[in-house]
Amino acid sequence: MKTIEKTTSTYEGKVNNIISAEDFYYKTNTEDIGNNLVEGDLTFLKFNHNGKTLLVCDRNVKNRISWDMLNERNLVFGKMITIDNIKYKVRLLTSNEWDKLIVKHTPLDSDSHWKNMYSWCQNVYSINFLKRYYSSGLAPRVLCAYSTVSYFIYTTSSYLTTISGSRPCLEIL
C-alpha cells in the first residue's frame, strides 16, 4: 500500500535585513566564483513548509555558476552558517519545493524574479532513457523557471551560463 505524503506550505511574506549580499558571499565562501547579481541587503520570501521555516531568496544571487561549483562548497544540500546568533542551513530548493513554494505562492515575476533566469535545484532528473544516456556518471540536474515559473530543464551539473544561477534557501535550524 502506497502512502501519500501530505505537504503543507504557507507564504508569510517578504523579509529584509537578515544579511547583506556581501556578507552572504563571505559566509558561503562564494566571493571568488560566478558573477554577483545582488549588492546590499538580500530579500527573502518566507515560507512555512512541512513544519520548517524556509527563507528563499527572491532572486538568483549569482550567475555563471554551475551545480558542481555550488556542490564543492556544500551549498546544494546544505552548509551551516550563523547569522545574528541564528543557525541556518544554506541550500538549494528541490524541484518539488520550487513547485510547492514558488509556483504555488509567488508565481509572479515581480515577487520571485524568475523571468529569463534559470535557478539550480538539488535534484537529479531521472528517467530510464536519461540514465542510459548519462551512463558516464554525469547525471542531469534540474534548473527551474526562465520562460514561465513552472518551466524546467535538465542539463549537466557543469553547465555554466549567464542565464542560470543560484537562489539560496536558508532553512532555520
Q: Low-confidence parts, pLDDT < 50 over ≥5 residues?
A: none
- The structural domain count equals 1
The secondary-structure class comes to alpha+beta
**Morphology:** globular
Instruction: Note the main sheet.
Output: 6 strands, antiparallel
The overall strand count is 12
Strand content: 25-35%
Tell me the series of helices and strands, N- to C-terminal: EHEEEEHEEHHEHEEEE
Integer average pLDDT: 90
Helix content: 10-25%
Query: Order of strands across the widest beta sheet?
Result: 1-3-4-12-7-6
Question: Mind telling me the C-alpha Rg?
Answer: 16 Å
Quote the distance from N terminus to C terminus. 33 Å
Helix count, DSSP H or I runs of 4 or more residues:
5
Compact summary:
By secondary structure, the chain is α+β, with helices and mostly antiparallel strands. It contains five helices and twelve strands.
Name the descriptors:
single chain; 173 residues; alpha+beta; 6-stranded antiparallel β-sheet; 6-stranded mixed β-sheet; 33% strand
